[in-house]
Amino acid sequence: LAMHYTSDTMTAFSSVTHICRDVNYGWIIRYMHANGASMFFICLFMHIGRGLYYGSYTFLETWNIGVILLLATMATAFMGYVLPWGQMSFW
Questions:
Q1: Contact (Cβ atoms closer than 8 angstroms) between residue 12 and residue 87
Q2: Where in the chain are the domains?
Q3: Model confidence over 27-68: pLDDT tens digits?
């Protein structure tokens, strides 16, 4: 996908259309990527819920490292997908 996508704001939407229509199985790669990212965060939040349910927050050092990892993951997703010229809307 990286060979077909352009990040320029004038051609980004056209390149996504090109991926979906002209690249072999590009449409399914696009949907698997979007749904996989959503599923990753759902699993992440379920893991946090499991920790809350079983009282894992009492292990402060382990819990704090998990919070730092969660914040780093969310910051990475924000910086990589949401910020670059608002192009998350193209997907």
A1: yes
A2: 12-85
A3: 898 888 889 988 999 999 999 999 999 999 999 999 999 999
